[in-house]
Amino acid sequence: MIAERYRGAPRLNINPETGETLCIACNLCALACPENLIVVGWQRDDLTRRKVLTAFTYDTSRCMFCGLCEDACPTDCLELTQDFEMATYSREGAIWDRHRLEEGPTPARYVR
Fold first, then answer.
1. Residue 107 and residue 87: Cα distance in Å, rounded?
2. Is residue 20 part of a domain?
3. Is 29 helix (H, G, I), strand (E, B) or coil?
4. Can you give the CATH number for the domain in which 91 is found?
5. DSSP symbols for 72-111
6. Residue 85's pLDDT is what?
7. pLDDT for res 34
8. Half-sphere exposure of residue 109: CA atoms within 13 angstroms, side-chain side
9. What pLDDT score does 79 carry?
10. Which domain holds residue 17?
11. DSSP secondary structure string, 16-69?
12. Does residue 81 lie in a domain region?
């Protein structure tokens, strides 16, 4: 059993109706992170004058799972889930991009 308040693997939530990310590229999660491990890339749309998320990276090897980034998010798009299987064989595997954050962790299935 996992504790109710356990904070594990990060996830970027998407709108289930439209399939688009809920992130508005405000960069508040990166500013709230004490380890400076979140990088938000954005670009301004000329028609709507709004920021559009272009890149989002999260370094899980440096994360201390404090939840400050989750609390700072105004749209609740960044969430620390209860998934705990995040082991990789390389350091590059610990840096999650936008696609991996949206799909969540994919633990390897081992068979005998």
1. 8
2. yes
3. helix
4. 3.30.70.3270
5. H-TTS-EEE-S------SSSGGGEE-HHHHHH---PPP--
6. 85
7. 95
8. 2
9. 93
10. 10-103
11. TTT--B------HHHHH-TT--EEEEEEE-TTT--EEEEEEEEETTT-----HH
12. yes
> Would you state the pLDDT for residue 9?
93
* pTM of the entire predicted model: 0.85
SS3 14: strand
Whether 2 and 82 have beta carbons less than 8 Å apart is answered as yes
Q: Please indicate, yes or no, if residue 43 is contained in any of the structural domains.
A: yes
For the chain, 112 residues long, give each residue's pLDDT as a single digit of tens. 889 999 999 999 999 999 899 999 999 999 999 999 999 999 999 999 999 999 999 999 999 999 999 999 999 999 999 988 888 888 998 999 999 999 887 776 778 7
CB 75 within 8 A of CB 66: no
Query: Does residue 109 lie in a domain region?
Result: no
Amino acid at 66: C
How many structural domains is the chain composed of? 1
- Looking at residue 97, its pLDDT comes to 94
Separation between Cα atoms, residue 84 and residue 9, nearest integer Å: 6
